[in-house]
Write a structure and sequence with these properties.
The protein is of the alpha/beta class. The protein contains 19 helices and 17 strands. The protein has helices spanning about 1-10, 20-25, 95-105, 130-135, 150-155, 160-175, 190-200, 220-230, 235-245, 260-290, 305-320, 345-360, 380-385, 395-410, 410-430, 460-465, 470-475, 475-490, 490-510, and strands at about 30-35, 40, 45-50, 50-55, 60-70, 80-85, 85-90, 120, 145-150, 180-190, 205-210, 250, 255, 295, 325-330, 365-370, 390-395. Helix 3 packs across helix 6 (about 160-175) and helix 4 packs across helix 19.
Amino acid sequence: MRDIIQVAVRNKLLDQSQEALDQAATGAREPLYTAGKAGIYRSSCRFRDSVLFLVGRTETDRVMLALSKTQFRSAFPGKPQRMQGVWALEIPMTFPNAKKLWEMFPFTRPVTTKSSLPGIGFGDRLGISTAAHIRVAKQYKLFPVFAQQSVRELSALGRNYQQTVADAAFAVFQEGYQDGYGADADHMRSMRDVRDFAKAEPSMMTLDISDFVRGDMDSLDNRSLQEAFRKLPKKEQSRIRRSYSGKSFNLSGTSIRFRPGDAERCAVMYHSGIEFAAKASAYLHKIRGEDCTIEFTVDEIPVETRLVDHFFIASELEAREIPFYSLAFRFPGAMQKGVDYKGDLRAFRSTFEGFAAVATSVSPHRVGIHSGSDKFSLYPWIGKLSGGSYHLKTSGTSWLVAIETIADISPDLYRRIHEKAMDEFPKALARYEIDADINEVPALEKVRDRQLKDLLSNPHWRQLMHISYGGILSDEDLRKDIMQALHKNEDAYFAAIAKHFRAHIDGLGVETRKAG
């Protein structure tokens, strides 16, 4: 704390105007004011009632401070102390303090998106990568979602969603990002999840209805299907048949036809999921109003989503007056973690084109793409066929970049991580659907230090590392060393993230912003 205050004093930050501080942040080549081994992020320096709020860093920590030439009272807990000729208060980066930050600096609060800009989810498993994501997002015309984490990820990490939201809010303040961002409580699979994660006041919630969807539909003969359909309420049976059976719909040049049995199949398959969606969305509307948009997903069910399925779900949500931002489905082929698309590109293009037509025509919404990172062969088609109306999610790819960075800067630490990943992999397989062959990962003793980064191009290695994060980061000593290595080598880590995400976003054809 003292070292950071020294940076502020030497650079006379308390003597400058907000306009001068903003100009210095915009025009600087380096993101930090420095003195010795400490620094202050230029873009974080912001006055409020003659008190300067800022985020600084030492060799080991990143902290937020409030500084003033005179004694002051603060909405944040604690009492300012006199140090090096100024009054200073350290502000822990907690969720309660994030809520206070929202009130003082409204641009740090997550918001819903009502723009037509492409949506990009930047998941941050480590809680230290969002600043790098922001620096990339500033360069493009997109709507970023920074606080995106799922129940599965947080459970594996031993974190909670409130801290995820707090980490994003403080990073937004640090980088002075004022163009709006989202917070997505991802893959909520129960009302318990919904209620728990809603406490963090997300601006977006992804309702995963997979557990309520029948995945055995392809094994049902017509008789079994009709028996299952007759178990639905009679009014529902009549309405479903009246609305869909034997009908065709023409949407933006795409024809959707409900053949015999299609309406019944859709109803049986998705009825319980839509009931969950209705209950969850009603709860969210009650406590969050219009401050939280909703995505629905069935991307993790074993059955590929058909065009009639998409049309049915969107139409049913619309009929029930359930507002939603996007729908994510199970595409043909495989959208596995950390690697490019596996499947027939022509089949994907045809399916995606149909989904885009439905999304444009029925309760207009985005096409959701989950496990969207590293799908480089798909990006040009996603961008072109959707007209930019999509929401693409990434998460573990920033973690892979972190491991790549460590392999470059600290080979010994990387080797410890690798050994832990190999031990964790069998357990992690139970949580993810991948087809990596662990035997295709080169034996570590045969890989020289300078060759470690080459592992990143091995798809089996990428999936090994992508899904084994929980076991790696639950090792307290290993986690501490990882965080310290990335903190000390922040420039290298952030540069690697920027390069990787620019490849994603440029592939999608997202328009860049003009400098300045």
